[in-house]
Design brief:
four-stranded mixed sheet; alpha/beta; 17 strands; 33% helix
């Protein structure tokens, strides 16, 4: 075991020295507010294979990479490269992997000064197998210890870490700690964006405080028990009165968003959400190579909700350019945070976030091809 540990440490440290992540500087855009993320950091060991191995088979990888990972770290790396002032609250082990993960984040412009170091801990790590035949990836996660706990957050730390923050990003993985942070953020009128991947213990309390929710494909129906995805999005707005919008990501099919529009009262009669979704699909250009955003009129819906439905297509990436979808959802969230913090319209924000996610899919790992604000794929949105 000690030999394996030394080998992995060597790979991490040597790759960190030789990587190109410090070859491009990134400047924070003046006047932009701060985004704060709280969650787990882990190390990703990524390999690409011609096809996924069958039991007892020995195969060779076609490429290998070691890179920082975890939803929170990926999302903030994306936001920082785009020019947002980004800050992270997490716990890492006092080992070579933990130190390397922090250095990698700092090289992309993420403020790690509020991270907690566990003297006798072990870092989280993740094996990622990318199947070139099916363009899918399989993750095997090994949790480290100890987790970030509420006792790690003193009153002064909470006050300092939230200073000048506009939006916090949480995932529910460190539920008690994230809840404490979210409650403090709520008391300071700091907006809360939650990534809801699957049902977790304590997630409901975080959802109650959230202003924005980005959900995996199956979460809305799993959480609400609704018969369809559109009705599940509506049910979430009904059950969570603080929620301004909820997004359901659909991978290569883009995403669907339902926005609450409380200040607009249409004169039309109540519309069935499934019929509205079907009608919107009929008028959406799914043949476009670049992402398009199509939205409905503000509509009266069930449950005394007035809202607008959006369908956003994903960028069609040529098979020769599609490398790895690891972290695409985190990149989308990073783009979304940028739009929210810079007052883009929702249509612009959703299209922009889709372009950012597509950039991520063109390299191995969640961070390799995350765009800087000068990247031609996103520069037009940013005026860079």
């Amino acid at each position: 075991m000690s030999h394996l540990y030394l080998l992995l440490s060597y790979l991490v440290l040597t790759q960190g020295r030789n990587s190109d992540m410090t070859s491009r500087s990134n400047k924070v855009v003046p006047g932009h507010p701060i985004v704060l993320g709280c969650g787990q950091l882990c190390l990703d060991y990524l390999v690409t294979v011609p096809s996924f191995p069958v039991p007892d088979q020995k195969i060779r990888c076609t490429s290998f990479k070691v890179q920082g990972g975890g939803n929170t770290g990926n999302t903030l790396t994306c936001a920082a490269r785009l020019g947002l002032a980004s800050r992270i609250l997490a716990k890492v082990a006092d080992d070579s992997q933990g130190r390397w993960m922090l250095e990698e984040l700092e090289s992309s412009g993420v403020d790690t000064s509020f991270c907690v170091t566990a003297k006798d801990g072990v870092s989280h790590f993740n094996y990622v197998i990318v199947d070139n035949q099916t363009n899918t990836r399989t993750c095997v996660f090994t949790p480290g210890y100890p987790p970030l706990l509420p006792d790690d957050l003193t009153e002064s730390l909470l006050s300092d870490v939230l200073d000048r923050v506009r939006v916090i990003h949480v995932t529910g993985r460190s539920r008690e700690t994230e809840l404490l942070l979210a409650q403090k953020a709520h008391s300071k009128n700091v907006s809360i964006l939650i990534n809801a991947e699957k049902r977790r213990e304590g997630l409901d309390k975080l959802l109650d405080l959230a202003d924005y929710a980005v959900c995996s494909t199956h979460f809305p129906q799993d959480w609400t028990g609704s018969p369809s995805s559109p009705s599940a999005l509506l049910s979430m707005l009904i059950r969570l009165p603080k929620l301004k919008f909820v997004i359901m990501t659909l991978g290569e099919d883009g995403c669907v968003m339902l926005e609450r529009c409380p200040n607009e009262v249409p004169e039309s009669e109540e519309t069935d959400i499934d019929e509205l979704h079907e009608s919107l699909k009929q008028s959406t250009d799914f043949t476009s190579v670049l992402p398009v955003c199509n939205s409905s009129m503000v509509t009266r819906l069930k449950g005394n909700v007035t809202g607008r439905l959006y369908i956003v297509t994903a960028e069609k990436i040529p098979s020769s350019e599609l490398m790895d979808t690891t972290g695409a959802g985190d990149a989308f969230t990073g783009g979304l945070l940028y739009g929210l913090c810079t007052d883009m319209t929702l249509e612009e924000t959703l299209t922009f976030a889709s372009r950012v996610a597509a950039c991520c899919c063109r390299g191995l790992g969640a961070r390799t091809t995350l765009p800087f604000r000068t990247d031609p794929n996103v520069a037009a949105f940013l005026g860079a």
